[in-house]
Amino acid sequence: MTTTDPTTAARAVADECTHAYQDAFADRLVAAYLLGSLAYGGYAPAVSDIDLALILTDTRAGDHDIVATTGETLRGQGGLYRKLSVFWSSLPALRAGHDDGRFPALDRLELADHGVLLLGRGITRQVARPATDELLLDSARFAVDVLATDEVTAEFRHPRRLLTDPVWFTKAVLFPVRFLYTGMRAGGRAATNAEAIDWYLAQPEPTAASLVRLAARVRAGDPLNPEQVALELAAGLIPLYQHYISDQTRWLRRANAPTSIISAFTRWHQCLGQFGGGAARPATG
Questions:
Q1: d(CA 99, CA 42)
Q2: Which residues, 6 or more positions from 271, have their beta carbon under 8 angstroms from its beta carbon?
Q3: How many other CB atoms sit within 10 Å of the CB of residue 8?
Q4: Which of 21, 60, 92, 96 ranks highest by number of CB atoms within 10 Å?
Q5: 109 and 173 part of one domain
Q6: Structural domain of residue 163, as residue ranges?
Q7: Are 104 and 206 part of one and the same domain?
Q8: pLDDT value at residue 274
Q9: Mind telling me which Gene3D superfamilies this protein's record contains (predicted)?
Q10: Are residues 195 and 252 in the same domain?
Q11: Would you list the DSSP string of 114-134?
């Protein structure tokens, strides 16, 4: 009996999803690319997404619904299809250095550096590479919108999902590590999780090093042990984020970033600082 390895299986799903979007957009689909760890290596079956990039001739009213509806249908098949994450934009927008769909700066850089063509004609040389300031500001907006919410802050204080969901656990721990690496050392190049982890742990006395090492092991396939995770989170999660927020806030001020972003980071740091020394406690009841 032949067993398909996880990377090959995920690539097969990406190919099938690509053809589903080809059916949806017809000749408006210029190209489809594979992004993420399936493109640059290091695919982790337990936690990695299947990142698909769609490049269109133009964008029109209704495109968002086409992308969403097709994605919902594909993810509804279950299994690996649930990992599908879709980025999309028109080629003219990517040439101009922005997106008119859903294609953040870091993912545009990843397309230029690591994109693997699945369908259509190659366009990576036409993609305008985001500047470092744009990458950092984009990451800051993502952090405010996704990680600084009341819901996530409450989860950091009293972990529930973090103790049982390896995808959320690894993302929550490694997001700030990758953002720090992008800002300080990536040098205008799309960084992988492995590069970011190695760089961070090589720093003198890195904050929450034990927690980051645990996240790296879980990403590689180690199972979550709720008791161990709870202890590591209590010791390191909030200090890790306070370190990231302090570093990011300094950069935001130097870069004359929008006041709204700086204020959001300041409030976020203050909120985490109210947790009594930074310790998170597992939820009970």
A1: 27
A2: 153
A3: 10
A4: 21
A5: no
A6: 132-273
A7: no
A8: 80
A9: Beta Polymerase, domain 2
A10: yes
A11: H-EEEEE---GGGSPPPPHHH
Tens of pLDDT, residue by residue over 225-275, are 999 999 999 999 999 999 999 999 999 999 899 999 999 999 999 999 886
Question: Three-state DSSP class for 85?
Answer: strand
Residues 106 and 140 in one domain: no
Does residue 43 lie within any of the structural domains?
yes
Quick check: 137 and 257 in contact, CB under 8 A?
Answer: yes
Are 45 and 3 in contact by the 8 Å Cβ rule? The answer is no
The residue from 107, 126, 145 where one domain ends is 126
| Nearest partner of 162 among 232, 245, 244, 239, judged by Cα | 232
246 and 148 fall within a common domain: yes
User: Which residue is it, tokens 């992988």?
Assistant: 192
Q: How many domains are contained in the chain?
A: 2
Residue 285 lies in a domain: no
Helical segments of 26-165, H only:
37-40, 63-75, 91-96, 105-114, 132-142, 150-157
Q: Are residues 196 and 182 in the same domain?
A: yes
Structure tokens belonging to residue 122: 């190659």
Q: From edge to edge, which strands make up the β-sheet containing 84-90?
A: 84-90, 50-56, 29-35, 116-120
CA distance 181 to 239: 17
How high is the pLDDT of residue 203?
94
What does DSSP assign to residue 207?
T
Instruction: Give the whole-angstrom CA distance, residue 64 versus residue 59.
Output: 9
Determine the longest span between alpha carbons in the chain, in angstroms.
60
